[in-house]
Amino acid sequence: LQECILSGIMSVNGKKVLHMDRNSYYGGESASITPLEDLYKRFNLPGTPPESMGRGRDWNVDLIPKFLMANGQLVKMLLYTEVTRYLDFKVIEGSFVYKGGKIYKVPSTEAEALASSLMGLFEKRRFRKFLVYVANFDENDPRTFEGVDPKKTTMRDVYKKFDLGQDVIDFTGHALALYRTDDYLDQPCQETINRIKLYSESLARYGKSPYLYPLYGLGELPQGFARLSAIYGGTYMLNKPIEEIVIENGKVVGVKSEGEVAHCKQLICDPSYVSDRVTKVGQVIRVICILSHPIKNTNDANSCQIIIPQNQVNRKSDIYVCMISSAHNVAAQGKYIAIASTTVETADPEKEIKPALDLLEPIEQKFVSISDLFAPTDLGTESQIFISRTYDATTHFETTCDDIKDIYKRMMGSEFDFEEMKRKKNDIYGEEEQQ
After folding, report:
1. Where does the signal sequence lie (predicted)?
2. Which CATH number is 171's domain given?
3. In which domain, by residue range, is 117 found?
4. Least confident range of 120-134, 183-197, 316-330, 353-367
């Protein structure tokens, strides 16, 4: 997906783009697999899916589960590039958080916050005060700081200021600010406050949850950006084996495929193409589960997200569950796909993810994958090879968008500017209308 978005953006920026993929489908790691038979093959499961699973081609199963924040960076990229023309989205019905072995809805309105059994009455008042403070907080207006220095005061101190208890801190940091660990507590609070703001603003758009999901699965996203690239003259080649990345004097000059060399000045790729220029930074376990029932205690939602904060299960990193269903054209009628994921911390990853799987029982079929996480050791300044990072365990696209903006900056030497993108697009579309 990162490569598809960048090829779209670079094409809009007037660069000549050739996009090669050794796979026969768009999106690489972030593809959606259809029909269901292909998923069984991919995970080397014996036999074929049972008849109870319905028609194989009714399934579109994401390999990497992620939702889009309604007000987040990816939605902005989709809107500015008008890739929204090729996609339809649905709002995810609810976000839940795990506390003491049970799941609770993350309050999405003041009324829900007051009715929620997540907190006691006095805690609710303090939490509401905190949310009002966050909503009014403006990093350019010191009058909204109330004695907090956004660049110095830690988030731990901000929680203290509002006298919030541990459980509330857990769900604020992990279900609203969407941190994977507790490291953020001792960092300056500005980033956390902005994350909670993003959550609230995303929530305000549609009301049920802050998350959106494309009909027919996430595989639609890379295809949308590939189309954008094509409109601006980009060329796409699927099923194209990469034999060698050609380097002269330490700098990339081309890519060799089937005996021919395509020449280039810059190259963008994922870690699997350049194993000597990346380093392993961890592992993620993902378990795709097929269910015939909605998840218990979610009000029979046909889609939801569940976050299990690390403190609740004595871990360092959170466990995530994303659930979608036939309502999103990704599963047969009456079937649900729940994907659990977390950062691996021990030698027994399946045991680590058990708290999530327990919430999903009974599970009809499981597909387990453990992936290595890679980060580039080469920033590309010399070699002009720009490498994306592997997808992490989070269930939203914000970290992926940070990576895209980072690669853009390393390639172009300037920050990625949404407004400029808009102007360029208007110039091109404006001319077409006059002809």
Report:
1. none
2. 1.10.405.10
3. 106-205
4. 120-134
